[in-house]
Each structure stands twice: as structure tokens, then as C-alpha cells.
């Protein structure tokens, strides 16, 4: 079986987890990024889903494994288990709903709890097409972003296809720099920081 | 040498270390709990296991307790098969409990080092577990204590990760094995730590999970196991055939050296740690050789290489049937099952037929109301009309409650506001490709919204959780009106609401139960999931939360749900459906290239591609397999598939 439908070689594989409140548009963002389409009535995400997308940064072939998690509060215990070994996190909120912005704090706390310390974070304010309904100012968002030392704060619209690809490329670039500068040159087709072996799994016996 | 006479220093002590026994001619088996110690005297270090003062019988034990006997070579005839009738002797209950005095008096069954040389001539390996030594015949206290010098351990095979508790298989220098030690209360890690202080341990290259022990004192190697008088002395055959019918006896008979009797634990038995999963019990009856083969423990004779034991780990289930699926129940069938006043007759049979083939689409609207407990089967048409009037009133009363909250009020009513906002988000995302819900200003969306918000008022403690809209959508479409849809939905939520609990305990329990089943039914697959870091089964989360709603077409999910709603053959039939689905996908999921992410991806991608009838038939087949070997199931498995309830019910009926 070939889950990714593309076996093209790549230089780096990064795992990116997409988090944020229910309905902020995470699945739409992933869909837009992955296939360039806009599906208005995407079903809510139950558990997690993921997709792969390749891109090129600085002449390197990068494969991004994007994990789309459920935003519903109650499913957090499940989704948190997928944070492990993420190289990057995209935390999204809905520019038209202040509560989703206020919850960025909760999500960032989860990140510090469940992700590796050096994970790269990106803050996204989605639905920027709805300018009339905007509920938070860009300054506020940027401030919160820098408070959590995100690599960038970007406003996006999955609907209008604004900054979607740019956001992922931005994160990929940062990850690439980080990992090539730390001199952890990976063999092609080596999963970067992925899978179960990055952290010692607690053994249940002996 | 009397142990008490030399200074003994205990360096490790662990309670709750169990040995598991098979009991011949009985459906239950025994475990003997005890204390494992490592102690040393001036010269040597020893490993000792000493039973507590009684035998733990897993509940429910209706039979008379029987005590395991492990033979000495004295009892064992060469290659002679034991008479099967000999296995059926019972030990009377008075033997069950030892007297406290004996229990309190530690009986150090120690190796007399100086006595060794004389006895070491006996070729036929003398491993005896002294069931009833002379004095214990009186006290009825079986003494199973064994003590061995650490140097005599050659290697230790560890349990794999992920079993309910760790267990260790100790193989001695001369190729014999000790009874498997099950660390029910943990402590195996510490055991290693301590052990490493006294011997050198190296990972075996020949065998997985095995640690080879190199003694610090090479001389010790000359000791042979038979000199250790492992299980006390052998005044034992005095009872004649009575205690010798044990299959282990014959096991020793056939494989005179290896006594690795019991084995690997596959079952989580999380809730009942004292119950050994009985599926692993040797099916001991007639033929000792067979018993060995079928008990999933394979003994290899010496000469085949000393690392020769192997634990076979697959559930012993009968062949899987593939029950035929049936036709949906028809309108004629349904009418013929109504009496003149509209009561439904032969409800159990109807449920069986629905389980077998579902419901004709033209009948669903009515039948679902019964299946979901909105209508009661025994109600007359008149009573139903009245019920509907009341329920309608009830619904609109609750609807009015939230409808009359003004937007201003709502600004100070956060819980309601938040629920409404979540519902709003989901209503626009639920089944929008279906004609019924399609389009922007579709009235169905409003109905979906209103039923969900009203449900919040009905069950405010739970509120709205994502996934509920998926469960409501097919019901609403079928019913076509909010009142009936609401009350059917209430019935459905009554069944599944714990899946939506704030603490997620319901989902956790379901995942745990599913794990129990997989682990029991297909240990190899389960091991594979462990290896792939997927044993939490989170990839089944959506199946369970939405009762497969996203995995099947609209038509099929209706059939699937009505089948599940019959409650047949057990409340957890949906878990068996999960097992069936995984069983179908197993070849792909177990592929070495299919890792953690691929499993998730593959399972998510099954949506819309599943053969419903085949899956239902397989799930039922698995249930029947379990039901057939019912008495061999661990309590945990039995609980999950509702067989304990049945047994109880049967017993109650009999009484
Ligand atoms: N106007 C506008 N609407 C958007 C945009 N992105 C998403 N939406 C809408 O927001 C709603 C939720 O989008 P999803 O992508 O399903 O949200 P999610 O974050 O994945 O939600 P969960 O899966 O529940 O965690 C959908 O109804 C989309 O139509 C956007 O950029 N602009
Ligand atoms: Mg989503």
C-alpha cells in the first residue's frame, strides 16, 4: 500500500500539527494547501486526519506531513497524543470569533506540554476574507504571537486562498534552516523526528 | 544445610508474584501467589519463590478446588500416555486452604549443597513440585516453594511489552525451566536491577527478549537442577493416582526436562488481575502430547538446542463461521407481528430478524421508534397516539426555553451561547452533499439546529459535542420532523452518551474493551500494533464515536445502526464490527511498510469502501467463536462481549 500516492524522493520530512478551536478552518486550510480546492462544507474533524504535501524550499525537496486535529475541547486527550514528535505546529484561530483567539493561550499551553521544546510554532488568523466581521486587531494577534515566540503571525483565508501556501512554506523554511544548521543532515527518505523512536517509549515491563 | 542456620540477607522481595496452573478436568485454573526474594548467605545468592498461604482461585469458582501437581520423575512413566480418566480426580475442598501455622512457618526448602553430589546421578531429571509432603497431607498446605542459586539460572526470557503484567521465564543451566513467574503487582524491573548486582546479564543473540546470565562463580555451574530439590522432597506419590493426573505430570513425562508450564499472558485482564486468561489453559484432557500442543505452549525436548522453549501465542478458537445475512424485514412481516390493538408481538424474534437482515426502508420510520425506545413494543396504537401528543408538547416546551432567550440575555449565558455556536458550526458541515441538507437556505438545516439545541436543554450537563450532528442527521432525514427525530435521537444518545463525556471516559473504556478483544483474538496482530506504536487504537476513534457513520453510505449506515440497536448478540456488537473491519484490513495493516501514520491514513481512507454485509457476518462469526469457547474466556473478554451476563442469566433461570 502506498498511503501517500507519491513515492518521489525528498530531502526532509517534517511533521506539522494543525491545532486550534473547532470551526476555525483547519481542515479547509489543509484542503486548500493539499489540493488547492475550497470545500465549503467540510465535515468536522473527529480524531485526526493527515495528509502529505511536497514542496520545494531553497532547492531542497521537503515533504510535509500535516496532521489535522479535531478542535473540540473534549477530544483533546486524543489529539494531544499526536503532538509528540511534531517538528512544527500551526495554531489557527478565527479572526471573526474572539473566543477562538483567546483560546490560543490554551493551545499554546498544550504545545509546551506535549511537544518537544524546540518545536517551531506558527500563528494563523484565518478567515481574513471576512473583513467586516473581524473581531481582533492585527496588532493584538502579532503581540500574542511574539509572546509565544512563534516564527511568524500570518493572516490567511482558505476561502480566498490567501497566504495558505505561504504559511506552510514559511514554516518549512524555518524548519529547514533549523535542521540543516544544527547539522543534522538527513539521509534522503529519512523521517525527521517522526515515529515512536524519537523519545524513549516507556516500557511496560521489565 | 538448613538455611536458617546461616545468615540470610534478603536483597530483593516482591509480593504478588504468581505461578499459574492448569487444573485438570476443571474449567477454571489456579494461580498461586507468592513472594519472590533474592537473598544471599555468605557464599551464594539465591532466588526463591514462596507461595502465600493459600491458593487463589479465580472467581467464579464453582468447582472444587484442585491442586496442581507436578510430578517427579517417579510418577512419570516413560513415554506412556496417562490414562485420561486419571485426570478427573478431584481433590476435596478441605485441601484448599492450608492451616495458618504452616503458612506462618517459613519452610525454606533449601538446597543442601553438600548433599548434591550423591543425588546428581539420576539421569531422569528430577523436578518435583511437592504437592503434599508428608506433613502437608495433614495440614493440607501445599508447599511449592523453590529456591535456586542465582548461578544456576542460565537465561531469562522476558515478556514482551504491553502484556498486562510482566512475566519471566527462567531457564536453568541444565536446560530446565522454572514455572513462569507472573509479576501481577509489578516489580520485575527492580528484579533486574538487583539481579544485575549478582550476575552478569547479556542480551541473548539467539532469542528475542532473552537475557543470558553468566554466573560470577563458575563453579556453581556444576550444580544440577535435580540436586536442588526444587519443590521440596518427594514423599509425594503416596497419594497414588490422586494427584498425579495433572497434565503437567504427563508433560514432564514426555519432556522430561522442561517444565516450563505456563506461559505467556496475552490478556490485559486489567480489571481482574488475579484471573488468568483461561484460554491459555492447556486443554488437558486425554492426551498429554495434545495437551501440550493445544495449550499454546510448546515444549521442545532437549537436544533441540537448549534455548528451546517457545511460547505460542494465538487464541485457541474454533473455526470461524460465516453466518448468512438475511433479508430486511418486510411490511407484511411487520403487520403480521402487530396484534389487533397495535401491540408488537414476538419482539425477541423481530429483533433477531432485524439483526439478521435489517429493516425494509419503507418501515424504518416506524421501526426505529421502537428500536430507539421512543415507542414501547407493548403499547397499543391508542397509547402511542397519546405518547406522541405528550412528547410533542414536551419537545416544544424545551424548545421554547431556549427560543425565548433573547440575544441580550445570551450575552450573559455563556454555556448556551457556546453550545449554540458549536452547533451552528457543525450544522453547516453535516451531510451537506445529501439532497435533504443541501443548499444554503435549506429548512432541514434549521431542523437539525433546533433539535440539537433542544437536546442541549434536555441534557444540559452533556451539552453539545461534535459528532452528535452526525448521529442525528440520518434520523432526522428519515423522520422528517423534529419531534420524532428528537425523541429518537434521545434514545440513541441514551445508548452512546458516554462517548461524549467531558472526561472521555466512555471513549477510553470503549478503546480499552476493543483492545481486550483484539489482544485476545489476534495476539499477533496486536503485537504488530504495539510495534507500530498504535496500540492505543486511536485510529478507531471515529468509528467508535460516530458508530461508523462516516464509514458507510447513507443507506448502509441505516442498516448497520438498526442491526446494532437490536442489542444482539451483545451490547458491544459494534466492537466486534471493529474487530471484523480490522481483520479484513489486517494484511495491509500488518505490512512492514505500514507504520503508525499509514495505519491511521489507511483506516481513515476506508470510508465508503467497506462491504457491510461481509463485515456484519464476520463480526457475528467472531462472536460465535467467542461464545463457543465461552468458558475458556477470561472474565474481561466475557464482560466485553456480554457473555458473563448470559451465564449469570442462565444460572438464574436454572435456579
Ligand atoms: N469565510 C471563510 N470561511 C472559512 C474559511 N476557512 C474555513 N471556513 C469555514 O469555517 C467552517 C469550519 O471550517 P473547518 O475547516 O471545518 O474547521 P476546523 O478548524 O477543521 O474545525 P474542526 O474540524 O471542528 O476542528 C467551515 O464552514 C468553512 O466553510 C475562510 O478562510 N473564510
Ligand atoms: Mg477539521
From TrEMBL, chain A:
Tell me where it resides.
Membrane
Q: Pfam families annotated for this entry? A: Ras (PF00071)
In terms of one coarse class, where is the protein primarily found?
membrane
Keywords of the record, alphabetical order, are: GTP-binding, Lipoprotein, Nucleotide-binding, Prenylation
Indicate the family of this protein: Belongs to the small GTPase superfamily. Rab family.
> Which PANTHER family does the record cross-reference, listed alphabetically?
LD44762P
Q: What's this protein's name?
A: Ras-related protein Rab-43
- UniProt source species: Clavelina lepadiformis (Light-bulb sea squirt)
From TrEMBL, chain B:
Q: Which Pfam families match?
A: PH_RBD (PF12068), RabGAP-TBC (PF00566)
Keyword annotations: GTPase activation
Residue ranges of every copy of the Rab-GAP TBC domain listed in the record: 358-568
Top-level taxon: Eukaryota
SMART domains from the xrefs?
A: TBC
Task: State if DNA damage is listed as a keyword.
Answer: no
Q: Does the keyword Transmembrane helix apply?
A: no
Q: What is this protein called?
A: Rab-GAP TBC domain-containing protein
Q: Which organism is it from?
A: Clavelina lepadiformis (Light-bulb sea squirt)
The taxonomy runs:
Eukaryota, Metazoa, Chordata, Tunicata, Ascidiacea
Amino acid at each position: 500500500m502506498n498511503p501517500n500516492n507519491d513515492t518521489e524522493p525528498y530531502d526532509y520530512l517534517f511533521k506539522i500539527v494543525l491545532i486550534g478551536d473547532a470551526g476555525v478552518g483547519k481542515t479547509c486550510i489543509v484542503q486548500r494547501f493539499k489540493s488547492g480546492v475550497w470545500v465549503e462544507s467540510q465535515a468536522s474533524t473527529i480524531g485526526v486526519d493527515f495528509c502529505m504535501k511536497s514542496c520545494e524550499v531553497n532547492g531542497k525537496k521537503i515533504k510535509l506531513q500535516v496532521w489535522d486535529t479535531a478542535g473540540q475541547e473534549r477530544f483533546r486527550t486524543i489529539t494531544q497524543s499526536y503532538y509528540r514528535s511534531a517538528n512544527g505546529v500551526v495554531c489557527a484561530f478565527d479572526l471573526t470569533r474572539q473566543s477562538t483567539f483567546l483560546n490560543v493561550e490554551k493551545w499554546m499551553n498544550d504545545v509546551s506540554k506535549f511537544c518537544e521544546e524546540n518545536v517551531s510554532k506558527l500563528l494563523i488568523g484565518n478567515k481574513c476574507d471576512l473583513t467586516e466581521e473581524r473581531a481582533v486587531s492585527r496588532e493584538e494577534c502579532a503581540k500574542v504571537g511574539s509572546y509565544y515566540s512563534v516564527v511568524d503571525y500570518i493572516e490567511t483565508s482558505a476561502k480566498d486562498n490567501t497566504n495558505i501556501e505561504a504559511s506552510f512554506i514559511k514554516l518549512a523554511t524555518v524548519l529547514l534552516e533549523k535542521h540543516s544548521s544544527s547539522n543534522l543532515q538527513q539521509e534522503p527518505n529519512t523521517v525527521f523526528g517522526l515515529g515512536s523512536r524519537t523519545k524513549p517509549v516507556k516500557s511496560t515491563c521489565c | 544445610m538448613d538455611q536458617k542456620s546461616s545468615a540470610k540477607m534478603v536483597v530483593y522481595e516482591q509480593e504478588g508474584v504468581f505461578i499459574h496452573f492448569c487444573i485438570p478436568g476443571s474449567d477454571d485454573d489456579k494461580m498461586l501467589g507468592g513472594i519472590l526474594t533474592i537473598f544471599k548467605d555468605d557464599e551464594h545468592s539465591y532466588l526463591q519463590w514462596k507461595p502465600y498461604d493459600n491458593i487463589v482461585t479465580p472467581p467464579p469458582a464453582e468447582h472444587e478446588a484442585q491442586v496442581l501437581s507436578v510430578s517427579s520423575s517417579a510418577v512419570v512413566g516413560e513415554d506412556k500416555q496417562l490414562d485420561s480418566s486419571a485426570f478427573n480426580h478431584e481433590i476435596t475442598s478441605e485441601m484448599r486452604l492450608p492451616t495458618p501455622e504452616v503458612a506462618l512457618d517459613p519452610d525454606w526448602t533449601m538446597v543442601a549443597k553438600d548433599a548434591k553430589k550423591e543425588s546428581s546421578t539420576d539421569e531422569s531429571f528430577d523436578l518435583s513440585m511437592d504437592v503434599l509432603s508428608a506433613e502437608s497431607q495433614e495440614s493440607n498446605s501445599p508447599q511449592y516453594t523453590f529456591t535456586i542459586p542465582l548461578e544456576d539460572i542460565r537465561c531469562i526470557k522476558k515478556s514482551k511489552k504491553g502484556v498486562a503484567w510482566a512475566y519471566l521465564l527462567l531457564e536453568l543451566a541444565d536446560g530446565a525451566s522454572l514455572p513462569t513467574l507472573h509479576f501481577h503487582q509489578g516489580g520485575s524491573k527492580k528484579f533486574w536491577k538487583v539481579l544485575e548486582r549478582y550476575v552478569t546479564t547479556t542480551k541473548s543473540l539467539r532469542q528475542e527478549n532473552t537475557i543470558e546470565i553468566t554466573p560470577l562463580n563458575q563453579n556453581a555451574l556444576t550444580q544440577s537442577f535435580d540436586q536442588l530439590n526444587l519443590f521440596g522432597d518427594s514423599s509425594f506419590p503416596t497419594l497414588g493416582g490422586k494427584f498425579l493426573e495433572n497434565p503437567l505430570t504427563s508433560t514432564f513425562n514426555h519432556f522430561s526436562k522442561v517444565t516450563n508450564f505456563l506461559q505467556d499472558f496475552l490478556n490485559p485482564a486489567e480489571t481482574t488481575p488475579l484471573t488468568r486468561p483461561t484460554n491459555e489453559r492447556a486443554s488437558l484432557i486425554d492426551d498429554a502430547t495434545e495437551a501440550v500442543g493445544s495449550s499454546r505452549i510448546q515444549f521442545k525436548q532437549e537436544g533441540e538446542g537448549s534455548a528451546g522453549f517457545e511460547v505460542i501465542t494465538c487464541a485457541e478458537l474454533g473455526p470461524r463461521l460465516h453466518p448468512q445475512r438475511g433479508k430486511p424485514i418486510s411490511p407484511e412481516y411487520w403487520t403480521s407481528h402487530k396484534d389487533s390493538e397495535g401491540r408488537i408481538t414476538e419482539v425477541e424474534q423481530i429483533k433477531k430478524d432485524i439483526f439478521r437482515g435489517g429493516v425494509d426502508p419503507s418501515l424504518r420510520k416506524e421501526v426505529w421508534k421502537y428500536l430507539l425506545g421512543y415507542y414501547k413494543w407493548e403499547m397499543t396504537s391508542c397509547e402511542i397516539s397519546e405518547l406522541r401528543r405528550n412528547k410533542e408538547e414536551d419537545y416544544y416546551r424545551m424548545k421554547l426555553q431556549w427560543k425565548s432567550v433573547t440575544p441580550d440575555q445570551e450575552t450573559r449565558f455563556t454555556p448556551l451561547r457556546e453550545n449554540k455556536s458549536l452547533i451552528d458550526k457543525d450544522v453547516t458541515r453535516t451531510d451537506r452533499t445529501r439532497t435533504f441538507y443541501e443548499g444554503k437556505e435549506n429548512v432541514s438545516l434549521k431542523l437539525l439546529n433546533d433539535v440539537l439545541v433542544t437536546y442541549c436543554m434536555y441534557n444540559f450537563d452533556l451539552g453539545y459535542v461534535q459528532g452528535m450532528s452526525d448521529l442525528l442527521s440520518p434520523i432526522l432525514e428519515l423522520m422528517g420532523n423534529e419531534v420524532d427525530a428528537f425523541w429518537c435521537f434521545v434514545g440513541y444518545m441514551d445508548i452512546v452518551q458516554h462517548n461524549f463525556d467531558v472526561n472521555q471516559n466512555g471513549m477510553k473504556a470503549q478503546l480499552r474493551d476493543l483492545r481486550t478483544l483484539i489482544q485476545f483474538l489476534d495476539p499477533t496482530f496486536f503485537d504488530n500494533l504495539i510495534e507500530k506504536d498504535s496500540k492505543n487504537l486511536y485510529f478507531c476513534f471515529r468509528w467508535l464515536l460516530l458508530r461508523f457513520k462516516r464509514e458507510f453510505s447513507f443507506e448502509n449506515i441505516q442498516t448497520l445502526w438498526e442491526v446494532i440497536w437490536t442489542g444482539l448478540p451483545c451490547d458491544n456488537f459494534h466492537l466486534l464490527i471493529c474487530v471484523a473491519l480490522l481483520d479484513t484490513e489486517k494484511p495491509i495493516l500488518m505490512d512492514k511498510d505500514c507504520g503508525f501514520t499509514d495505519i491511521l491514513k489507511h483506516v481513515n481512507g476506508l470510508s465508503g469502501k467497506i462491504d457491510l454485509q461481509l463485515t456484519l457476518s464476520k463480526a457475528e462469526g467472531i462472536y460465535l467463536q467467542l461464545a463457543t469457547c465461552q468458558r475458556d474466556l477470561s472474565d474481561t473478554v466475557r464482560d466485553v462481549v456480554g457473555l458473563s451476563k448470559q451465564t449469570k442469566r442462565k444460572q438464574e433461570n436454572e435456579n
